[in-house]
Design goal:
This protein is an alpha+beta fold. The chain folds into two domains: 187 residues, Lipoprotein localisation LolA/LolB/LppX (outer membrane lipoprotein receptor (LolB), chain A); 39 residues. It is globular. The N and C termini lie far apart (46 Å). It has a twelve-stranded mixed beta sheet. It is built from three helices and twelve strands; from the N terminus they run ββββββααβββαβββ. Helix content is 29%, strand content 36%.
Length: 255
Amino acid sequence: MVFSQLAFADATVVYEQSSGTQKSANTMQIKDGKIRFSPPGNGPNNDYSLYDSKNNELTHVDAVNKQYITMDENTIAQQANKAKQQMDKMRQEMMSRMKDMPPEQKKQMEQMMNNHLSQVEAKKNPQKLEQKKTSRSETISGIPCTVHETYFKGMKYSELCMAEADKMGLSNEDAQALMSMQQFMKRLQKVAQDITGSSMPTADIQGIPLHTTLFSPDGAIQMETRLASIVTDAVNSEAISIPVDFSAVPMPGLK
């Protein structure tokens, strides 16, 4: 499929993902700066998510129970802070109780606490994800992209074939929505890493990934995601809207 320089107002983007023998397809519908994510096998009663680039909000829609949860970065950060405070309190209680534990149990607790402390130290001095732009290029569904490699602790971690947003045949608004969503997800990933104590860095490469390959430590392909198609037919406004009979529910606390 070859794209001209014309920019279309709506788009339906399909990515195919494979991991081992498992394969799936994920669909994104884009219209008016909004993006709807539909998981594999999505039907009329399946959950889906909506990203609004204008308000920088992510909404999870529970189609079965007719409910939805809207999250912005401030709300998520507040919940994450509460979760961290709960974890700190729990660790203090554990330290207090350790002195009365049997030797074997106390040893297990000390090991767990030491593992946590090592994660904290790793976060203070995180190892950088080395990024390298190569001279290799691909054409995915008619769109040219350039291959970037990332390395972590000297081992290849991923390959990403990145396309310029204005080369995808999308309207400027929808191309910017894709870029906004990508940055939003990266920030959410960092919040999740702060909660779990993970020090794994993320790639920061400009553009839209058309083909992504993740590698395991032994060099084998762990997961691969490839753009399968872009269809620029009109998207129904109802697809990117929350049904009027659905009810908003508060975001649950992070445990």
